[in-house]
Amino acid sequence: MSSTDAPTAPSGPYLGAGLLPADFYAYEELLSDLERERLERLRGFLRTQASPILSDYWARSEFPLHLIEGFRELGLLAWADPDSSEPVSSNLFEGFVALELGHVDASLATFFGVHAGLAMSSILTLGSEEQKRRWVPGMCRFEKIGAFGLTEPHGGSDVARGLSTTARREGDEWVLDGAKRWIGNATFADLVVIWARDVESSQVLGFVVEKDTPGFTATKMKNKMALRIVQNADIVLDGCRVPEADRLRHAESFKATAEVLRRMRSTVAWVSVGVMFGAYEIALQYATEHLQFGRPIGGFQLVQDLLAKMIGNATACCGMMVRLAQLQDAGVFRDEQSALAKAYCTSLMRENMGWARELLGGNGILLDYNVGRFVADAEALYSYEGTRQMQTLIVGRAVTGGMSAFVK
User: Fold this and answer.
1) What is the distance between the alpha carbons of residues 408 and 406, in angstroms, rounded to a whole number?
2) Which residue among 15, 103, 237, 313 is least crowded, i.e. fewest CB within 10 A of its CB?
């Protein structure tokens, strides 16, 4: 094939307005007209402002801070403001927001999930009314960016028992000592929800630590191969003093932390569906443009087989997430249901990334064609917020009537 026959690199996963090409069963039509209008505004913002620059920022391992203003103008979190008249968002709409973000870039989805799904949700779920009014309005408007400090350098799946960061009460203050690792947004966050064990009661407590607090330092982690746009940090807490007024009032045990994490598992599953949508659409566009033997490769049987398998996985996972969101909106969803979604969707996402990379051949490893970024970022989604094995143990315990296979 001559150089003149080679197609230009796709600019991004967008192929037009309306339903996404990967939404084969038109699940998006389950949203209300207002929700679809808001989703389309987000889609337009990501298409015009984010998609053209993301590979460059990914390569440089930097976050496009100027995009935060765009998120502010979209008003996606206005419903959480205590003084807002906005109706509370449905879990289905929030799921499609996560899908749309993942459809463009898993790092942007992670930024949004950490800020809204972990940090702000911790305050909304576990804070007092005064604390909600103090912090949430600014977070809704993206004027204050949040982070969530749970994971530790030597911790992992056993975070409930293995949490080593300590909190010691001294009068009207708490003294925090310890370290956190892999904390997204932490290098530029205005406040970080820190989880620490009370040395007196041994219970896990939550604290809101504002930036520039003495004894708190956040250092950017380097040399990541995935989610490079996310600014993960190593946090050190060295005699960090936090007022009693900044202790989350209803976070008095690890069960409170687990409630926040339970909801985040389903968000990660939605993002993984978005990643599948994005990679599929890039592969589809490539298949219709890239020529071999004088015609587009999309006309060959083996290529169509790959595309069919990819859209099958994506459609199955999207259907699972839609039903899970409906259960969440009904207030009847269970922990094992979000665990199954996280394990299943991220596993099939990983499979799809291999097929998308295969379809693009050598171009699949070039950032210019976007799929390579999706492939790398999928590895992080597969592991964070609970590994596949931990999720399957949660499911296994449920389906066997409570027989736990967790290490005692």
Assistant:
1) 6
2) 15
Detail the DSSP E strand segments found in 76-213: 146-149, 166-170, 173-183, 191-198, 204-210
Residue 365 has pLDDT above 90, yes or no: yes
The count of other CB atoms within 10 Å of the CB of residue 102 is 32
State the residue range of the domain holding 245.
147-253
User: Quick one: 215 and 307 in the same domain?
Assistant: no
Which value, in Å, is the radius of gyration of the alpha carbons in the chain?
22
Same domain, 71 and 207: no
Residues 141 and 153 in one domain: no
The residue assigned the tokens 């950490």 is 114
Query: Rounded to an integer, what is the distance from CA 54 to the centroid of its chain?
Result: 16
Q: Which CATH number fits the domain that encloses residue 194?
A: 2.40.110.10
SS3 240: strand
CB-based contact 149:217 (threshold 8 Å): no
Any bridge partners for residue 168, and if so which? 175
CA angle 228, 234, 235 (to 5 degrees): 140
Whole-structure pTM value: 0.92
Which ranges in 290-360 belong to alpha helices (H)? 301-330, 335-359
Kindly report, residue by residue over 297-348, the tens digit of the pLDDT: 999 999 999 999 999 999 999 999 999 999 999 999 899 999 999 999 999 9
Each residue's pLDDT tens digit, 251-300: 988 888 887 888 888 999 999 999 999 999 999 999 999 999 999 999 99
β-sheet bridge partners, residue 177: 166
Q: Select from 196, 157, 201 the least CA-distant residue to 180.
A: 196
Helix (H, G, I), strand (E, B) or coil at 105: coil
DSSP state of 27: G
Which letter does DSSP use for residue 279 in this model?
H
Question: Which is nearest to 153 in space by CA: 222, 233, 211?
Answer: 233
- Check whether residue 201 and residue 335 sit in a common domain: no
